[in-house]
Amino acid sequence: MKNIVTAGIGIAAAALVLVGCSDDKGSTPGSSSPAASGSSTQVSTSGNTEVKVEGQDLAGLDTSTVTCVKAGGKINVASGAVGGQQGVAVVMSDATPPAVESLGLVVDGSALAVAQMGGMKSGSAEVAVDGSTYTITGEAQGADMKNPMAGMITKKFEIKVTCN
Questions:
Q1: pLDDT per residue over 126-164, tens digit each?
Q2: Which domain holds residue 155?
């Protein structure tokens, strides 16, 4: 049972990374276009992005690929690196204050997440806003893919991104 839960959370985290990187509006990074509902879609790739895990920069993550998309009452932050590489994906509400709805990190091949699914909560995240800069901190949980039998792992993270 422990192995099934560990595998399930790992799969959920990987799915979050893929969902966070998708955009159903068909927009490309660096562009802005009106959404079908009449609201605007804002895409930002500017600013200094930082992604730290356990106090260290997430090695192997190209922070220049991190985009921030505001659309449909959501803020999506995602990196270009997915599929087993280092990566990040965050979905937040575009409210005051914003709240993290889901977060996925790929760290050294392990999928980590902050999510609430089916009454189960994994990890935690808080958002601080300073102008157009969002700082997301917390702890993500998942499976150590190098040793899946070891059970759950938890890592502290800090993500700082500018969304114009």
A1: 999 999 999 999 999 998 888 888 888 999 999 999 997
A2: 2-162
